[in-house]
Amino acid sequence: MALKGIQVLEIAGLAPAPFCGMILADFGAKVIRIDKASGTDFEDNFLSHGKLSVGLNLKHPEGVEVFKKLTKSSDVLIEPFRAGVMEKLGLGPKTLFQLNKGLIYARLSGYGQEGGLSQKAGHDINFLSYSGVLSMLGPHDSGPLPPSNLLADFGGGGLMCALGILLALYDKSNYGMGQVVDCSMTRGAAYLASWLFRSHHSPLWGQPRGQNILDGGCHFYKTYKTKDDKWMAVGAIEKKFYDNFLAGLGLNAGEVPQYSEFDAANKIISDRFKMHSQAHWINIFKDLDACVSPVLTVDEAVKLDHNVMQNAFDQSKDINAPVPTPEPQLSLNVSQSRAAQTRPPAVGEHSLEVLKTLGYNKEEIFGLAKRKAIFLAYENAKL
């Protein structure tokens, strides 16, 4: 496992930081999630398989001291707060670098550590709106439409932060020093959309939102409803694919030229798809190289033969998950990717064992718990 031997502290937060920690855990890092007391805040446990949980009160002096001891033996810290929060806790980079000069201090926030927005609250939709990306997403006859919270939280946030951490670890292998990774989800979302920005005034994006080739505006790159109220996805951009696409529909380029008036073409093709079921169209296009595919539900994607053959989804990481979860698919020939633990941890589940590795004995640990400097999971409470 590529990151075996790397210890990561992940301060519990919402989606982006847990996703970043999940990536590192999936490739072998030991990730210790620093949790508040159970029930004191929303607990995002969806991305915590393969992690340990230590319950710490970072507003308690003794809790801060435990955290500092953990920092000394860790390679990476992921913190999800607005600028200045860690400094107020006495745990900013300057303080922690004095304890561990090799620490990778990853700051994952909405707007970064500097600038007029750095103290402002926000969520994925806000980061997208400030990045300029949101203005480009959605249909032409309504307002901009965010793609769930995929772009800023997970793409521009968690994934970009994980990349920054890996780059910093590589630097450390050469120079022996840690550094701050400042990951702004706003800037990350904009960077993720580099292709959109750079092609914005090209023929691909020369029209208003929702009226371009790749944003659902044209008839050969969009989804169509079938007779049984399911959907087919069409991406027949190149001429050879477009010709095969029309052939599958029983049409020709004389009836629907590729670069004809898009609205009229949309109507013709939409009416054609509504004539038959999704199963019919799957059968028509299964042997046609036309870039046409069914829009599968989550349950259907899990059962698709291709995905099953590639072990794309796995139930074992969390038996309580409503559906099997996606497996990490950066296939490395030498290193495997597999989290060691098969379920998310309870808050404070590993406080006892982790604090023991720091030199605390049982009496000291239960004393800290009694003073509410640390938190133990219920199953540990009577040990």
Q: How is this structure best summarized?
A:
The protein has 15 helices and 12 strands.
The main sheet comes to:
7 strands, mixed
> What is the percentage of strand-forming residues?
5-15%
CATH topology type of the largest domain: Rossmann fold
Total separate domains: 2
What low-confidence regions span 5 or more consecutive residues with pLDDT below 50? none
Approximate shape: elongated
Order of strands in the sheet with most strands: 6-5-4-1-2-3-12
Give the helix/strand class: alpha/beta
Please trace the helix and strand order, writing H or E for each element: EHEEHEHHEHHEHHEEHHHEHHEEHHE
- The CATH superfamily label of the largest domain reads Crotonobetainyl-coa:carnitine coa-transferase, domain 1
Number of strands: 12
- Bin the helical content: 25-40%
Counting H and I runs of at least 4 residues, what is the number of helices? 15
Straight-line N-to-C gap: 33 Å
Average pLDDT across residues? 91
Which CATH class of the largest domain? Alpha Beta
Rounded to an integer, what's the Rg over CA atoms? Answer: 25 Å
Features:
single chain; 383 residues; alpha/beta; Rossmann fold; formyl-coa transferase, domain 3; 2 domains; seven-stranded mixed sheet; three-stranded antiparallel sheet; 12 strands; 14% strand; elongated; CoA-transferase_III; CoA-Trfase_III_dom_1_sf; alpha-methylacyl-CoA racemase activity
